[in-house]
Design goal:
This protein is mainly alpha-helical. The protein has 3 helices and no strands. The longest helix is centred in the first third of the chain and has 22 residues.
């Protein structure tokens, strides 16, 4: 039972972080209560390898 509670709490924290990222740093705004959080999220997203639109178009054509 305790494991389930811990897992659900972790899921809720992750959901909150995703919503915060989409609401603020992804749109170019600072997180009002914690600007350091927005900066950390932006650095984390920049560090993750992504597929740009040009490469996605080329992959679809193949």
């Amino acid at each position: 039972m305790l494991t389930l509670v811990i897992i659900m709490a972790a899921i809720l924290v992750l959901c909150g972080l995703v919503l915060t990222y989409v609401a603020f740093p992804h749109r170019g705004a600072q997180v009002p209560a914690a600007p350091w959080l927005g900066d950390a999220m932006s650095r984390a997203v920049d560090a993750v390898p992504t597929l740009d639109e040009e490469a996605a178009d080329q992959a679809r054509r193949r």
